[in-house]
Write a structure and sequence with these properties.
Structural class: alpha+beta
Strand order of the largest sheet: 4-3-2-1-5
Radius of gyration: 13 Å
Strand content: 35-45%
Largest sheet: 5 strands, antiparallel
Distance between the termini: 10 Å
């Protein structure tokens, strides 16, 4: 699943996926200047906790979704 965010003239893209080979949940943040941060989680609970915390941080930092109006809870599942 890809989430797009905008803040003034900045753009942020978040990707969530499941790596079948490793059995891990993956969160990739693409920021300005081709900066990419990848996080991997062994459990779905840890993954969901991280996504919830990240969403709160983005709200606090005044990022706004710039894409689909709503995301499916399980949109990242294959």
């Amino acid at each position: 699943m890809i989430w797009l965010y905008q803040r003034d003239d900045e753009a942020l893209r978040l990707e969530t996926r499941f790596d079948k080979a490793s059995g891990e949940f993956v969160l990739i943040q693409h920021r300005a200047g081709d900066t990419q941060v990848t996080e991997r989680f062994n459990s779905e609970d840890d993954f969901r906790t991280r996504l919830t915390a990240l969403s709160a941080t983005l709200d606090e930092e005044r990022w706004h979704r710039n894409g689909p109006p709503l995301l499916l809870n399980d949109g990242w599942k294959l």
